[in-house]
């Protein structure tokens, strides 16, 4: 990974924080912005609650890797979790902090790189990341870091993009076939045209390899509204998602547990003065 790659990635998401456009013309960081973005995100991605299971983590310690503008971290906090978040950009960390304040709930968000998480080993009950690590240059290292900071027996929930999806097929048709480049590699199209520079998408087998160290690993593709896009911000009705075979969904959720340790237990986060310490 080069410094330039990470700098470009940070600059991209600083200019256009993920899902910030859902706020429409509301002033970024305003009460109206937070309320609008939550309303629209819930409509577009109602399935998030099924995988995040926000209420299940009350009194547990949760880390969100790539907290964006704070949707999910604030929900964990609102449901009583001890919520910590990291984001590559100061903009994301700041907006997440503002959203936590908007909901009047405790929680922390800081700037950090998902390829080098600033936490000790084995301290989080849940490590959660929704649509983030496929953007970082070294996704394999990010996956290892996520597992590293989960406690033995802890839960990992990560969403990454599915290469064998309708979204990728649409991208191939537009940027491959219609451009007269039918032999153009899918990886090149995804990296060049799907969100930030260098974005990746994975097959189920590749996704399982990223988190092969987890027990009871499940991989669940989800057909989303984004699979039914007919314009930049125009989508077919959401009920039509049920007509598409699930295996072609753009989102792919991986869930598993870190194997329980056989040796002495790790120091609990709750008893630590600060979770933000170098590994």
Can you characterise this structure?
It is built from nine helices and nine strands. The protein has one domain (3-258): Vaccinia Virus protein VP39 (Rossmann fold, 3-Layer(aba) Sandwich), CATH 3.40.50.150. Helix content is 33%, strand content 19%. It is α/β, with parallel strands linked by helices and 279 residues long. Mean pLDDT is 90; it is low at 262-273. It has helices at residues 3-15, 31-44, 48-52, 71-78, 90-102, 139-149, 166-177, 186-193, 204-210; strands at 61-65, 82-87, 108-111, 124-130, 150-161, 215-222, 229-231, 234-235, 251-257. Strands 3-2-1-4-5-9-6 form a seven-stranded mixed β-sheet, with helices on both faces.
What is the topology?
Elements: H1 3-15, H2 31-44, H3 48-52, E1 61-65, H4 71-78, E2 82-87, H5 90-102, E3 108-111, E4 124-130, H6 139-149, E5 150-161, H7 166-177, H8 186-193, H9 204-210, E6 215-222, E7 229-231, E8 234-235, E9 251-257
Helix pairs in contact: 7-8
Q: End-to-end span in angstroms?
A: 20 Å
**Count of separate structural domains:** 1
Radius of gyration from CA coordinates: 18 Å
Strand order, biggest sheet? 3-2-1-4-5-9-6
Brief characterization of the structure:
The chain has helices spanning 3-15, 31-44, 48-52, 71-78, 90-102, 139-149, 166-177, 186-193, 204-210, and strands spanning 61-65, 82-87, 108-111, 124-130, 150-161, 215-222, 229-231, 234-235, 251-257. The chain has 279 residues and is of the alpha/beta class.
Q: Which features would summarize this protein structure in a list?
A:
Rossmann fold, 279 residues, two-stranded antiparallel sheet
């Amino acid at each position: 990974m080069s410094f330039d790659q990470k700098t470009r990635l940070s600059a991209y998401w600083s200019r256009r924080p993920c899902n910030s456009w859902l706020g429409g013309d509301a002033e970024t960081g305003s009460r109206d912005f937070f309320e609008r973005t939550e309303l629209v995100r819930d409509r577009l991605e109602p399935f998030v609650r099924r995988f995040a299971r926000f209420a299940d983590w009350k009194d547990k310690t949760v880390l969100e890797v790539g907290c964006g503008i704070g949707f999910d971290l604030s929900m964990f906090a609102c449901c009583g979790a001890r919520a910590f978040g990291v984001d590559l950009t100061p903009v994301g960390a700041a907006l997440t902090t503002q959203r936590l304040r908007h909901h009047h709930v405790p929680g922390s968000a800081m700037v950090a790189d998902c390829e080098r998480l600033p936490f000790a080993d084995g301290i989080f009950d849940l490590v959660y990341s929704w649509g983030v690590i496929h953007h970082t240059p070294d996704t394999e290292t990010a996956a290892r870091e996520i597992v590293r900071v989960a406690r033995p027996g802890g839960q990992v929930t990560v969403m990454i993009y599915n290469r064998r999806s309708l979204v990728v097929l649409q991208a191939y048709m537009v940027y491959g076939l219609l451009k007269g480049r039918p032999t153009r590699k899918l990886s090149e199209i995804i990296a060049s045209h799907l969100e930030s520079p260098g974005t990746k998408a994975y097959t189920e087998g590749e996704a399982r390899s990223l988190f092969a160290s987890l027990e009871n690993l499940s991989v669940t593709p989800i057909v989303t509204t984004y699979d039914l896009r007919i314009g930049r911000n125009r989508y077919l009705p959401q009920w039509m998602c049920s007509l598409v075979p699930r295996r072609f969904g753009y989102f792919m959720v991986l869930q598993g547990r870190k194997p329980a340790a056989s040796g002495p237990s790790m120091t609990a986060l709750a008893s630590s003065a600060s979770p933000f310490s170098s590994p």
